[in-house]
Amino acid sequence: MTLPDVQHLRALVVIASPTDLNRFGMAQLDLSAEEQRLMTALAPIQATLLVRGTDHPPTMAKLLEELRAGYELLIIVAHGSFEQHGTPILWLEKADATSDPVAGPDLKHALEGAARRPQLAILAACEGAGRDHDGREALAALGPLLVAGGVPAVVAMQGQVSIAAVQALLPTLIAELRREPQIDLALAAARRAAQREHADWWRPTLTMRVADGRVWNGTAPLRPPRAGDPPFTAGPTVPPDQLRGRREQIQAIKYRIGSIVPQCISIVGYRLSGKSSLLNYIQQRISEFCTHEQQPLVIPINLKVTHFQTPAGITEGLRRGIEQQTGTAPWRREENDDPWAVDDGLQHLRDRGRRLIVLIDEFEAIEDRLPAFAGWGGDWREKASQGYFALVIASLHPIDAIYQDLGLTSPFGNIFTTIELGALSSGEWQALVRDGFGAEHVSSADIELIDDLAGGLPYYTQLAAQLLWSHNDHARTRAEFTREVASHFSHLWKKLRTDEQHALRHTAGIPGLAAPPPGVRSKLQRHGLLRADGRLFSSVLREWVRDL
Predict the structure, then answer these.
(1) How far apart are CA 46 and CA 416, in angstroms?
(2) Which residues fall in a coiled-coil region (predicted)?
(3) What proportions of the chain, in percent to the nearest 5, are helix, strand and coil?
(4) Do both 148 and 30 map to the same domain?
(5) How confident is the model over 162-182, as pLDDT tens digits?
(6) What span, in angstroms and rounded, lies between the C-alpha atoms of 109 and 114?
(7) Could you read off the pLDDT of 465-516 as tens digits, one per residue?
(8) Beta bridge partners of residue 356, listed in sequence order
């Protein structure tokens, strides 16, 4: 048998979801979502799509007709089931889009009589079929029949496989097959890629009749690897020179902490929205916010650090920070509980012309302890009102709302102006990407991929760009991104309020949910979780939410 060359691979993709599936107790597939996922995973393999609503419907006749044109890869996304006597069934469509249950033996005989057969077939029912356990087992049972019909290798999703697991596995499988066309090795690599985040990573099964596992010849020409470390920072804090956008927020902060009398400001944004990076920018670029004559003294306090999670700990953090930067302790450590000594020390700094600015990050880290901080909040409000310092506090939710959720009244009163962090504008995040790649060419397809994955949110933009730089391959970038963000999405989800979770589930297309209130949608849009057109910021988040 002469194997096809990897550089000339063609794929036939069949997505079948008959309009009358509900009669048989099966759910409709999300055709557009399946199409987008598969076409992205296959790029740049040339693919032909059989799907309802086009000139190429997913019928048995059209499938066999297309196979005569010669395709190396066949992917079928459809429901499966068993007949009464245990025969596996594949649910394709008739010309009128109603059900055409094709028996496994009939499909085997049709393939046996075909002049040309694919080298590899992939069978999956990953969208909307989570309740159809028997159907998934039926797809797995079709594997040996297709191999008996002349297909060298078949990968079938066995059991109940999550959407996210398939989305993580398929791009890696295709990418590995283009590099090293041994299906057993490629599937092992794809399983490893899905293993970290998905408990059902093992469920794809392989049936093959090729001893060495090779389904085609050669390796695909790859875009050359880039030299050096990726010029992007996918972490909680980016260096000041990589901070893009936020000019409006920076200006608002400047007006508050750099005014004649220091004033306080609250920075609100969901996790990984850039709050810590903005605080770091203030600290590193304080000359942009305060004049030289104001002699700014910036003290950062991160409340995730355990020893700052008591009022005494915060006071000690302030004292030590001042001592480290000025060389002189404003009061002795044993005087932390003496309000007069602390006031005298802060007043002395103020009278010397020092502008004290306290940056408090991760305020929500102490929200479970806020009742114990009531006295501290009132005390620091009074100190801020006397001009001893300007407070810049970063939190997931507005300060007042955090206290209200606990049935408390904020001791800070109205001393804060609040700014919100959302997505960057298209021009801002694209400038970040293009500046990072420098002389390297960034194609429109690269930009579209990063937009689809990250939606302009800073951390996710940095991550997508970093992965694209490292892999230089769209399928691998998407697969790695999907795997990397799962834990972040989980943490984000836990911190959302019930009405916000409901809004995201509704937007992801989960049926039976009432439309969220306009105010909730507006908030999610301001914070970047929803785009201006109402979609979720990332297609990966959409699939993650649907898979909950």
Answers:
(1) 56
(2) none
(3) 50, 15, 35
(4) yes
(5) 556 666 677 777 777 766 667
(6) 9
(7) 999 998 887 877 888 899 899 999 999 999 999 999 999 999 998 889 999 9
(8) 297
